[in-house]
Amino acid sequence: MSFFKSLFNTLTKPKKQIITVKPTMPEQTSYEYLQSLYKQYGATWNEVNIFGIRNEADQDKDIFNDYIGLAINGQVYLYKGTCDPGKYWTEQGGCCGDKAGVAHMCLGFHSKIWQVGIHLPNNPNVAHEALIQTGNTVKIWRDKHRDYKQDADDPIEVGYFGINCHRSNANGVTLNIGLWSAGCQVFSGPVNFLTFMNLIKASQSYQQNKKYCFSYFLLDNKQIDLQKLGIS
After folding, report:
1. In angstroms, how far is CA 158 from the centroid of its own chain?
2. For the CA atoms of 87, 67, 208, 158, what is the dihedral angle to 10 degrees?
3. Residue among 111, 137, 129 at smallest CA distance from 187
4. Could you give the CA distance from residue 54 to residue 186 in angstroms, rounded to a whole number?
5. Residue 35: which residues within 8 A CB-CB, separation 6 or more?
6. 149-186 residues labelled b (16+ CB within 10 A) or e (exposed)
7. Domains of the chain: which residue ranges?
8. Among the listed ranges 3-17, 147-161, 210-224, which one has the minimum average pLDDT value?
9. How many other CB atoms are found less than 10 A from the CB of residue 53?
């Protein structure tokens, strides 16, 4: 082969195409996604992270269509519940003789509000261990017009209103909110609630301090990519 022919073959030989493959980032876990939400909205991330996901639709149907969740030890647990009061107390304008409008917790981070205690200790028919509002004040709005939505003139208050986190019926899953919530965050099923409380009580925070105050982060479902938390 002549020098010129060899040079021609070298210059015209197809070059191998080099493809650079970028490493794929591992998929964000639901735990990591929740951490990012806390950071995005300025909420404080702790060992025990209790949160609620409110669905404002169909409140007048008196159904458990919200989620109450717990993030702990790298895991996220989600349970059916309500983050809003039921139809009965809405139509009554509140409970305990206060007719200014039933209480709804405001969206956002409520710092150190709950301690482990007894919900309604003076009523033996429904008294049970729960998270009770003895730690700090909470921010609420009152449904003055009894229309299941926050209007511009609905009062906003900060204080101790007995906004607890508890279960509904002890004997099985409850379908309708009924009398179970006048503003409390309420689980629809007793088994899920027991699991939730056991996880909280097993935490280092609680084991080291039985009077530990737990925080709560309430979000609207429109603020969240629900699929990243496994909610379809």
Report:
1. 20
2. -50
3. 129
4. 12
5. 45, 71
6. ebeeebeeeeeebbbbbbbbeeeeebebbeebbbbbbb
7. 3-229
8. 3-17
9. 21
What integer pLDDT is reported at residue 166 of this predicted model? Answer: 98
How many CB atoms neighbour CB 30 within 10 A? 18
Q: What confidence tens digit (pLDDT) does each residue in 163-222 have? A: 999 999 999 999 999 999 999 999 999 999 999 999 999 999 999 999 999 999 999 999
DSSP three-state, residue 192: helix
- Nearest-10 Cα torsion for 124, 129, 133, 136: 150
Q: What pLDDT, in 10s, does the model give residues 138-155?
A: 999 999 999 999 999 999
Radius of gyration of the chain (CA): 26
DSSP-derived secondary structure for 98-110: --S-EEEEPSEEE
Q: Which helix (H) or strand (E) holds 71?
A: strand 66-72
Residue 97 Rama label (left phi>0; alpha psi -120 to 50; beta): left
